[in-house]
Amino acid sequence: MAVKPETIKSIGAKLAERVQMVAPVLRHAAILFVDDHPEYNAPETRILTSIGINVEAVRSTAEALARLAKKPYSVVISDMEREGVKDAGIQLLQQMQAHGIETPTIFYAAGYDPARGTPPNAAGMTNRADDLLNDVLDALERA
Predict the structure, then answer these.
(1) Is the separation of the CB atoms in 56 and 67 below 8 Å?
(2) Which of 10, 38, 80, 131 has its CA 20 to 30 A from that of 111?
């Protein structure tokens, strides 16, 4: 798969090279993006879909768990705070584990402080789009 010039401009040449190297694992990849404001993630969603990943968005933990019960996803990307609940992302991850759902979960949160580290059992946490894409590619390669 050749990465389109507009995608290279968005993600940079080095990341575009990595995308081309892992293209076979992208063909069947599906991401569940959990955020009560999906419009905030439009640029990231555009990038992910431009490299061939199917992205579905839901607004709540309940919606996410319902989708995960019906269909397997390659990766879950979740914000940390939803509907006034500061640790909604952590609660989602805990509920996924309680239901035996082992989908790699990456937290994408604007207020992320790298000094606090990544939550236990999370596949990653970032507030940067380039790091998010690298975390997604890492999780897909491991699968």
Answers:
(1) yes
(2) 10
pLDDT of res. 16? 79
C-alpha–C-alpha distance, residues 103 and 96, integer Å: 8
Q: Judge residue 108's burial from the number of C-beta atoms within 10 Å of its C-beta, 0-12 exposed, 13-18 middle, 19 or more buried.
A: buried
Measured distance CA(117)–CA(98) in Å, rounded: 23
pLDDT at position 36 is 96
Contacts 24+ apart (CB under 8 A), 59-66: 59/34, 59/35, 60/34, 60/36, 61/34, 61/88, 61/91, 61/92, 61/95, 63/34, 64/32, 64/34, 64/92, 65/92, 65/95, 65/96, 65/99
Task: Name the H helices within 12-117.
Answer: 13-21, 23-26, 42-50, 61-70, 88-98
Give the pairing type, strands 75-78 and 124-126.
unpaired
